[in-house]
Design goal:
Elements (H helix, E strand, L loop, with lengths): L2 E8 L2 E5 L4 E3 L4 E2 L3 E8 L5 E9 L6 E2 L2 E2 L9 H14 L3 E9 L5 H16 L5 H8 L6 H6 L2 E5 L5 E6 L7 E7 L7 H7 L6 H20 L3 H21 L7 H13 L5 E4 L5 E7 L3 H8 L6 E6 L4 E8 L5
Parallel strand pairs: 7-9
Antiparallel strand pairs: 1-6, 1-16, 2-5, 3-4, 5-10, 5-15, 6-9, 7-8, 10-11, 12-14, 12-15, 13-14
């Protein structure tokens, strides 16, 4: 048997300047610039672990232990097939994909796509990283955030590219509490396909692009609190637009908590972020975590303590009687 295996891990993401609307749904290209962070549980890793195996042996493609539909519109094979010929020039055999999500609350598709991209870049070290990111978008439009880690900005419309502007160490004195509410999250495409229908969307594009400009300046000065203040304002703008197109992400229960946060902010520093899921993310200094947790417990019993995390990395490689051409 000839085989080679590479396993990589990547952290999930959440938005800081939130993305809404796709100019090209197939390529997952945006209408505006955006920004985000990688996160992990504070006490254990939140990752997608993805393995690519090239072997003569017959295997299954799986996601979280379930057989994967390789023909799905956002299948990882949308990415793998773009590099299949290059990989098989170097390594012979069938290419199999296996991925498991561990301790991920939301943002798993970004993590999975980034971990897969890291596997490909290990197999093909000369691959162009910018082209790789564009191709990763076909699986998940914010995969670049997971690939690079920390705080990132994604800029450009026809060829959007992501770069890290602060690494995770700059956020070590801050924590994020994910307050999960018991309703089903809506597909992200509900947002992407409906936001552009509003007359307000042109204003949203301008707001998001300006927020990214401001964010880069705040990052240059290491103004972490102001970064999260900006994120809260961006959240409000984003969900105002969602309300105009009848995409209800913020439920009444979530809104009650968000309104209470504005009162608590008179006493301690605290902000919130709401992306496209069923969580309100509360950002505070580490010293205030228990105080904020007690407030959150009045609204939900499902609360997770998070921290900002780093980028994708290769965690295991191996080969057996490797045959190259």
């Amino acid at each position: 048997m000839n085989s080679i295996k590479v396993k990589a891990s990547a952290h999930p993401t959440m938005g800081i300047v939130l993305l809404g609307g796709l100019s090209d749904p197939a390529l997952r290209l945006p209408y505006h610039n955006s920004a985000g962070i990688c996160y992990s549980l504070a006490d254990r890793e939140s990752v997608a672990e993805t393995t690519l195996t090239i072997t003569d042996e017959k295997m299954e493609n799986t996601l979280n232990g379930e057989t994967l539909d390789v023909k799905d519109t956002r299948s990882p094979f949308k990415l793998i097939d773009l590099y299949k010929e290059q990989i098989n020039r170097k390594y012979s055999g069938h290419i199999y994909f296996n991925s498991v999500n561990r301790n991920i609350i939301s943002g798993s598709s970004d993590a999975g796509a980034a971990a897969l991209g890291k596997c490909i870049s290990w197999l093909l070290p000369d691959v162009d990283k910018n082209d790789l990111e564009l191709n990763m978008r076909k699986v998940s439009e914010s995969a670049g955030r997971s690939f690079y880690g920390g705080l990132t900005v994604t800029e450009g419309i026809e060829k959007p590219l992501t770069r890290q502007i602060l690494d995770e160490s700059k956020f070590e004195n801050y924590r994020i509490l994910s307050v999960v509410f018991p309703h089903k999250r809506k597909p992200s495409d509900d947002i992407h396909f409906n936001q552009p229908k509003s007359e307000y969307y042109k204003k949203r594009i301008m707001n998001a692009d300006q927020n990214v400009i401001t964010l880069k300046e705040l990052a240059r000065k290491n103004q972490i609190k102001d970064i999260f203040e900006l994120a809260m304002r961006d959240t409000d703008d984003y969900h105002y637009l969602n309300s105009l197109v009848d995409v209800k992400i913020v439920t009444e229960e979530m809104k009650v908590l968000m309104e209470e946060i504005h009162e608590i902010r008179k006493k301690i520093w605290l902000t919130y972020i709401v992306t496209g899921g069923n969580s309100v993310f509360l950002v505070t200094e580490e010293k205030n975590v228990e105080r904020v947790r007690n407030v959150a417990l009045e609204h939900s019993r499902e609360i997770y303590l998070l921290k900002v995390a780093g980028g994708a990395r290769v965690i295991q490689t191996g080969d057996s009687n490797l045959k190259t051409e």
